[in-house]
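Blinded run. Sample ID left blank on purpose so nobody reads anything into the name before looking at the predicted structure. Input follows.
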Amino acid sequence: MSEPGPRTLLVLNLGSSTLKAAQYEKSGLSGAWPCRLSRVEIALVNPSRELDAALAQVVDALGLVSAPAFVGHRVVHGGEAEQARVLDAAELERLGALSCFAPLHQRAALRLVSAVQNRWPGTRQYASFDTSWHAQLPANTRRLAVPKVWDALGIRRYGFHGLAFASAMRQVREADSRLGRERVVLAHLGSGCSLCAVRDSQSLDTTMTSTPLDGLPMATRSGSLDPGAVLHLLRAGGLSVDALEEALYHECGLRGVSGLSGDVRELLAESSIEAALALDIFALRIAQGIASMATRLGGIDHLIFSGGIGANVSRVRAAITNHLTWLGIGLDESANDRGDARIESPGSRARVWRVDVDEEAEIASACAVVTALMRS
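Blinded prediction complete.
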C-alpha cells in the first residue's frame, strides 16, 4: 500500500557553533526526500544551553505550522552502526553511553532529541551518524596499538565527518565518474578538521580516531597530542580531568597557538607573529596528513577540499598544497582564488576540487532508506 500524500522530514544538523535545519517533502515509500522546501542556519554561542530557543527559531524561520512526520538528526558518534537508526529508548541509551567519546557533540545532540520530543511527542526521530561512513575500515586501520581489553572498551579508530565526506564524494562523482574507482583524499577543514583516504568508494583510513579531538590541529582543538603530555598536565599542571577536557576542546588549536582566535579569517587579518605561526602549523600538519593518506592509497588521483575553511579560504588551500609539490600536486592560482570547482594547475598529477558539502541532504537520504526498510 502506498503512503497517502507527502510527508515532511525536518533535518536538524547540530554543530559546535551552528544549528542547520532543512525541510524536505517526500511522497511514496522509495528513494530519498528529493524536494528540499527550505533551509536555515542559526548561530549558537553555547549549543547545550540554547537548544529550546534554537528549535523555536527553526520553527519560525521555516514556517512550520504543524509537527513534521519525521525528524532526522546528525549524531557524531554512532559506534558500530552502519546506517541511520530510529531513536527509540534503547538506541538513545546506546548513544548516551558513547557520549564520553564525543562530549562536545553527543550530549548536545541528545538534548536536541529531547527538545524535539517535548515539542512534538508523536514525531518519529532518526539519527544519521558521522561514524557510519567509516564502518568498514580495514582491521589494520581500525585496531590501535593497545591491549585487547582496551579495544573491547571502544578504544579504536571510528573516524568522523562521514556525512560531509559522503556529500563531497557524491558531488564530485556526479562531475567525474572515475572518482569511484580512483584514489581520493578528502580534506574536510572547518571548526573540526579531518582527512579520509578513499579507494573504490571505501574509507580506508582517516585522521580522527576514538574521539573528534584526534588528528589534525583545529580551530580550538589540539589534534594529536603526546599522551605523556596529557598525563603530565594531570599530574603536574594542576588541571582536573574536567578542566583538561575543557581546554583540549576549547583552548588549543589555532586559538591556543595564536592566543587570539580559532577563526582563520581573523588570523589572516592579523599581522602578529603568533597568528602567522598558527596558520603555518595548521597548513603544514594538514599537508603532512595528506601525505600519510597518500601512503595508505599508494598515491592520489583526487584531492577534495570541503568545510568552512577548505571550501572558502583560498589562501589556506594554497598554503597546504605548497607543501605537496613533491607529490605533483599544484593549484591554478586564478581558479583557486575564484573558488572554482576544479582548481588544479594544468600540470598537476591529481585533480583538486573545492566542494560545498550538503550534510542535510545526506541525512535526509539516510533517513529515507531506514523508513523504506521499516515499511517493506
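Unblinding after everyone has recorded impressions. The longest helix spans residues 273-297.
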